[in-house]
Every structure is written in C-alpha cells, then in structure tokens.
Amino acid sequence: MGRTMGFYDLRDAMAQPGCPVCRLKADAVERFLDTLLWENVNDPGARQDIRQARGFCHQHAWQLIQGGAASGAVIIMRDVVQNVLRILESARLEPAMPGGFLRRTQPAAAAELVAELAPQLPCPACAQAEMVESGLITTLVEGLPGEDGLIEAYRASEGLCLPHLRQALSLAHDPDVAAVLVETQCAIWQKLEGHLSEIIRKLDYRFREEPRGEETGAAARVVAAMCGWRDRSK
After folding, report:
1. Is residue 232 part of a domain?
2. What is the pTM of this model?
3. What pLDDT was estimated at residue 128?
C-alpha cells in the first residue's frame, strides 16, 4: 500500500524521545507560526481569523513572540489590541453619576460586552495543531499493521502519551490493531513504572549511595506519558 509523508514522519519521530504525535504536532505548530510571522503577516484572511480569535491561546501567544520575527509578532498583536479597543470603546455601559459615584452596570450590557470580548474563533495555532494531530492519529492506526508497518518502530519507542492513546483507540475499529496498541503501551509503561519504583527504592537510606541508572529522568518521562510530551530543549 502507498505510504503518506505522515507515515514516514511518524516512523522517524518514534526513534526520538517522547510521544511521536506530540513531537510532530509541536513541530507543525512551530512551522505554522514561523510561516505566519515571516510570510503571512499581512495576509487579510489570516489577520481576520486572528482578530476573531482575539489573538492566540496562552501557550501559542508566548510561543509567537519567542520566534525570530519580532516585528511580525508586534504587527499581529497590535492588530489584536486595536480590535479589542474598538470593542471596548463602542460598549454602551452606564456612565458615572454626578459626584463620582458609579452606577451599577446594566447586566445585559455587561454580558453582551463579555460575549463580544470572548474568542469568536479558536486560536489559529490550536486549530492547526488539532488538524495535524487528527491526521497523525489516523495515519498511525492505519499504518500499524503489516510487515512494513509501524509496529516495530512503535514497540521500540517511548510510546504514545495517554491522551493520544485514547484517541488512537477510539479510531482502532480493527480489534487486532486495538490489541497491539494496548499490548505495546502496557510493555512500555511497565518498564517506566519499574524505573519509578527504582527511584523510590533508592530514596531509602540503605540504597542512596547506589549509582543512578536507566531510571534517571523517569519523573519527566512519566509526566510526558500521562499528560503529553513537551520538548524541553526549547
């Protein structure tokens, strides 16, 4: 059967630390933001979507300004601020009473303003991440079986994180594929649990002087396994 680029990307990512889907999703978001900053700063459609989203989510807003194109981030975020200011300045709320006392804000007017200030579209980077993530999970599930499938690379990897395992299992309509996912993750996480147990054992004063081994770094690996991988090199 023909293989997509996503198949080979997954295979390569499985040779790297952490959940391969998390890694490739993070790479896709980084490329998306780089393209936005360097090539699409003045794209009308992109700018409109960003205004409607009221900018970016917390994670991706900070990632935006960590890129190399600082001027692009400034242009984009000024546009967001100007849009928010227009909303605030056009709001119809109760004016102050004579003498400096403030009237109670009309509930309906305040609620309308709150709704208008809320994102009207998802964070653009999150939308890109979800699209890439969905495609990768589908490719993973479809690409596991067969002699030239992903199964051996998967077994040799650090496995999927728990959120992506759930997604993969939800798409694994073939019982054999679901069984492979469960069996492989059990083997990977049993090894991880053993590393955690070894860390705990060496907390005992009787074993504290023993040299550290494969268990080193297991605290970060278990968080990545249960909650999602994060590239700590960035």
Report:
1. no
2. 0.84
3. 96
Cβ contacts of 138-142, under 8 Å, gap ≥ 24: 138/171, 139/4, 139/6, 139/7, 139/10, 140/10, 140/20, 140/21, 140/168, 141/168, 141/171, 141/172, 141/177, 141/181
Query: Domain for residue 29, yes or no?
Result: yes
User: For residue 70, what are the domain limits?
Assistant: 5-227
Quote the Cα angle for 35-65-222, to 5°: 90
Rounded distance between C-alpha atoms, residue 135 and residue 132, angstroms: 5
Domain count of the fold of the chain: 1
Encode pLDDT of 45-100 as tens digits. 999 999 999 999 999 999 998 866 788 999 999 999 999 999 999 887 765 555 55
User: How far apart are the C-alpha atoms of 108 and 120, rounded to whole Å?
Assistant: 19
Q: 211-231: per-residue pLDDT in tens?
A: 888 888 899 999 999 999 876
Containing 77, the helix (H) or strand (E) segment is: helix 70-89
| Angle, vertex CA 125, rays to CA 91 and CA 76, nearest 5 | 55
pLDDT tens-digit profile of 161-202?
A: 999 999 999 999 999 999 999 999 999 999 999 999 999 999
CA atoms of 165 and 225, how far apart (whole Å): 10
Secondary structure class of 234 (helix, strand, coil) = coil
Residue 212 lies in a domain: yes
Q: Do the domain assignments include residue 149?
A: yes
Give the H/E segment covering residue 50: helix 44-52
